[in-house]
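Extended Data, record Competence protein ComEC
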Amino acid sequence: MTRPFFVIAVGWILGIAMEQWLSLSIRWVAWVAILVWLACGWIVFYQRRFLALLLAVSACLAGMLHFAWVDESNSTMLEKGVTEGRIIGKVDSQPKVDGDLLQMELAVNQIQTKEKWIDLKGERILLRLWLRTFTEKRKALQIERGTGVSVIATLKRPDPVRNPGAFNYQEFLYRKGIHWVGEIKGWQSLRLEDPHSGMFRYVDQVRTSLVKQIEEVYPPKTAGLMSGMLLGVREAVPAQVEDDFTRLGLVHLLAVSGFNVAIFVGCVYGGLSLIGVTREKAALITLCSLPIFVLLTGGETSVVRAGLMAGLGLVALWWRRWPDRLSFLGLAALLLLWWDPYVLFSVGFQLSFGVTFALLVATAPLSEILPFRWSLLNQTVAVTIIAQLVSFPFILFHFHVFSYLSWWANLIVVPILGSVVTPLGYGALFFSLFHETIAFVPAWLSSKVVSGTLTFIEWLATWEGFEKSLAPPPWWWYAFYGAVISYILWSWTGGLLRIRGHRIMALVLLVGSILFVDRSFHIIRGEEITVTFLDVGQGDCAVIETSEGKVILVDGGGNLGFPEEEWQRQRREYDVGRSVVVPYLHYRGIRQIDWIIMTHGDADHIGGLSAVVDRFPVGGVIRNAHPPGSRMEVALMKQFAKKKIPLHVPSLDGPRSLAPGVTWQFLHPDSTRIQSGDEKETTSTNDDSVVFLLDAGGSKILFTGDVEARGEEAIRKRWDLPPIDVLKVAHHGSKTSTGTNWLQEIEPKEAVISVGEGNRYGHPSREVIKGLQMSGSNIWRTDQQGAIVLRISPKGQRIESTMSKDLLIDGQ
């Protein structure tokens, strides 16, 4: 049997995936594994057939058993009811200081509660501290890995997913063995001890000094990017550069991973070969230098994974077993999955091993049949085609968005950064250790190339229409696509199937599978109308989707800004539009917005719209007739004008058709009154919020913005409102809105309150909650339940929450 390690790795991966899906107890898995292993032993002893299959099955059960054991052991030792205490432990990773936020992972020894000391060796906690002064920040920057910590902190569980399709931070921490987040009660409660000397602390210090060397020899414009590319210091990369790279599918270049490891290995191995060192000795020397590189670039999971794969590849060269490289790839996967089986679920692991496997199998034969004259160009094109085809389903599963410019961007940018910039960068960094003057030439050359490349990427990122949101397809599509890719690789690079008919059929199937994903949003949706009240913290945002694909965005959330000093500003200021609204729209497969409803100009309603408009075409904007009242609103109006998005004021007439079976009717404010300047005593635009009634499949949903008692009374006097199925409660449940007369008039069955957890305003008020309860409404709160999703179909109305999984079907 050939390549047994590869066969075992495939079986082990399937075992982990099956255990994650089935969630069987370790006892059940152990009994099944023993029985199957006995059966396999009998077949091998008496039949001596199907050895590869039996080995894969045995590995599958071993993977299930190992993962079940690891997962059952991954639990907190902290007793229930413990919410606060003095925690004693040691900083377990490089602390991160971003603006006025300090975060560090702590390996806990003990925790002191009011009653007793609890031994918690093995527990890990993520500590957070909001810094209040620049002096505190200076002290925070001096904390190193290994520092002893004694701190008073409030403990809470990490939040689960609050919006559909959002990143699962709780699961991310769980897979790192972290079950609690500790909020530190001020710097004064934090006691630090001198760190113990250790290898990782020394490596962190060397890495910090290397970053300073890069800042010395490179201009500020390119120093951050070079630090990210050469040393994996992602936080040094400017946020806008990171956004452009992400849009074009180039973000893998900003983190030290397989790309950088390959270049490092190529430079060292190639340089040794050029001076006459034999292939085996060059492989051995490069292998010995590889751990140093891995440590100096941060020792993160991605670089360890890439370093292990490269190291085993060098072992294959050293032992003259390069043709058996798939076995070494399988061995690398086995070692990583044994050490941490959760790594299987990371996009980095999936892309690394999936793409590497395809490149090892198909690059050489595919480059041979490409028609270009230069072999290097053939190899570059072959690598790009294979990497893009194989990575597509992983990107779709994890990110729900894909740029068709990614193919061309990778084809052009990767060779430039890989063949020119990164080798020159490592050369400049190496020479700068002796004297900065020696490093001038490679630093200057690489800086010029980087500047030109950044200009090209920035220009390319402005192209519109190439970035597509892709709704998650059904599970069987992934299996079908995998089979199609295997068929393509076989028919275009294999032996028996390299005939014209199979090649054409393979391409037809590939185009068909991509077109299915491209249109699956409309196929899966059916006749359902969806209204999602997103959890955007202390703000408002709702997304209306009709069965025909029309999309209306009601407000965009936002942060109520407070003055900050320069030292408090984080590398990437939190933007609810970029962090919540845009990912949700991608997840839903939404590619354009027909209407944006700006109920009024407060920051907590419009702050996230800029990011949305930057990423999606918009058909039109409806807002009240007030002139822009803040710099944020003025900037947003300029963005609308630049994008040539028409602005409208609501017309208070009868219902208008939005889509088949869907109408909407604007109820407030009276634009004529606002434009004429009547009722000048009104000092707030809250009462002039755009209010409209949506009738979707017979369900009546009332959107109220931040309208207050005066506006509610004006609406009551002007309109004869029907009973409301779903009310978006005005002004986050403030006591200035949602009065008794209003509730008696509309009789809402369901009430949705969009409000931030632990907000400083005390929303929602007790009076509003009591009033809603008295009126018989079911109350839904985004602070407690996450996003609230209303689904309307011919079968009826269904409303559900994201966090608590509460569910009502037709009011039951």
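Summary. Residues 406-432 form the longest helix (27 residues).
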